Amino acid sequence: MDLPPTHTTSRTHPPRLGVVDLGSNSVRLVIFEGLTRNPLTIFNEKAVLGLGRGLQLTGRLNEAAIDPALTVMARYAAVARAMGANPVQVIATAAARDAENGPAFIEAIRTRLPDMPVRVLTGEEEGRLSADGVLLGFPGADGILGDLGGGSLELVDLRHGTAGPAASLPIGAIRLADRAGGDPLRARAIVESELARIPWLREGEGRDLYLVGGAWRALARMHIAQTAYPLSIVHHYVLRREEARDLAGLVAQSPRKILEKIPGAPAKRLGDMPFAAITLRRLLRATGARRVVFSANGLREGWYANLLPDPIRQEEPLLAAGRELAQRWGRDTALAPALLAWTHPLFEDEAPEQQDLREASCWIADIGSHDHPDYRAEQAFYRVLRQPGVGLDHHQRAFLAMVVALRYEADTTMGFLATARVLLDASAVKRAEILGAALRLAFTLSGGTPVLLRGTSLRRHGGELQLRLVEGSGVFAGESVQRRLDALAAVLGLTATVEVSTAG
Questions:
Q1: Are residues 82 and 154 located together in one domain of the fold?
Q2: Bridging pattern class, strands 208-212 and 291-294
Q3: Domain Ppx/GppA phosphatase N-terminal: where (predicted)?
Q4: What residues contact residue 15 under an 8 Å CB cut-off, 6+ apart?
């Protein structure tokens, strides 16, 4: 039997960019796709090699890790090349810049991989790039940034979205353990002495402490697991000062056998965790920070941020995330501005941040259009709740996810909505219910097209919610429209009415 000919198609993709983070504890390749306000990571692989282990005692990179590191680097170069990433750059941090044999190691990389440029960062450059990464996720950040690696701790004063003074201290988790000879009391004294060299840390009083680095993210995961927090996303996870202090105290004082039993404890980092916790407690004391904010963004995202065109970098990340979802999953990106104007009469007294959430909701309102109709509400809910956008805090994720689920007519009692309800207060839930019902009505009227939506409008007048329709515009108040209008009016505590007028 003759088989039909096969056809292959090559799909073009947005530009890809790769960065290798050559650190004291691990080597990691991250490949980003596209130049967007919210970095999209399509590949992320880490090898824990401990290049900086023993550096404090010997002044040299860990000899046992050098050949494995070169092997890993060759793999990363091959992966980046196969995925079409360009540019690809290696950024080397404390271990490579401080070790006696660091220059020879860097030269070996350049010899074996001549097409992959290597940049050895100074401590200040490392701090600046980390700040750029954090500000990509927290554009208005105000407080002290602490980026804890294996070899060093980078500190930056962030003032309302601008990076100020920076410092680099030789108290990364691995180096601190080596300097202290494994003694927690000695480690505490070393950290106190190092932090005392930075007078501007005292200006963190009453502000936030932004934490970057794998060991500190591991602390966040442990707290998430211990408290059964409903969203397992470290980025934007927040702890009050007392909670962070108690968590760090527990980890700093617990022997390894106890740490192994703590939910979420990282098996490969257990030896370093007490020293990361000691550093956090001392940093809390030195800064007087009111709360801790964890960031998944850091050095690598800062590298990416510096490749973005300035207009993209200056975009509001919440709205950019909404637009990106609409472009990927929606049917008509022209609909969002129309929906924003159409829903305005329902929210005339909203604060600026509430209007931004409403606008983002209008962008994502159609992202379930290609899903199975029986699962649209739940699928869209999780797509939004777990999206990779770096500028969305957990409240924003929950609000947008609830709105889009209700827009697809999810029952308010459905179990999957519980995650959002835990993360939102009563007033936010009420706004989400109103907006979800309004968007559902808008799509029923318009079929998801701005042309048909223009033939309709909403108005609140006294105790009434009035839907106005233009005769001959292709919309009419059928049973489904009336039902959804009544549902919206009920959420608002109003009575629904329909008015039909002639065009003009």
A1: no
A2: parallel
A3: 39-308
A4: 33, 34, 35, 86
Mapping DSSP onto H, E and C, the string for 262-324 reads CCCCCHHHCCCHHHHHHHHHHHHHHHCCCEEEECCCCHHHHHHHCCCCHHHHCCCHHHHHHHH
CA distance 80 to 77: 5
Residue 2 has what pLDDT?
Answer: 52
Dihedrals φ, ψ of 457, to 5°? Answer: -160, 160
**In the block, which residue shows the tokens 């600026």?**
352
Whether 309 is covered by a domain: the verdict is no
Separation of first and last alpha carbons in the chain:
66
* Shared domain check, 339 and 239: no
Which residues are CB-neighbours of 60 under 8 A, at least 6 positions away? 54, 99, 100, 101
User: Domain span at residue 462?
Assistant: 316-501
Contacts of 385 (CB under 8 A, 6+ apart): 231, 397, 398, 400, 401, 419, 420
Start-end of H helices in 86-149:
94-98, 102-112, 123-137
Assess whether 202 and 57 both reside in one domain.
no
- % residues pLDDT > 90 (the chain): 88
Span 219-230, mean pLDDT?
A: 94
Torsion of CA 478, 479, 481, 484, to 10 degrees: 170
> Tens of pLDDT along 94-147?
999 999 999 999 999 999 999 999 999 999 999 999 999 999 999 999 999 999
At what angle are helices 426-446 and 352-364 packed, to 10 degrees?
Answer: 40
Rg for the chain, CA atoms, rounded: 26
In the chain, the amino acid numbered 137 is G
Q: Flag whether 76 is in a domain.
A: yes
pTM: 0.92
Residue 262 structure tokens:
């703590």
Q: Which two tokens stand for residue 451?
A: 């042309």
**87: cis peptide before it, omega within 30°?**
yes
Residues 35, 157: one domain? no
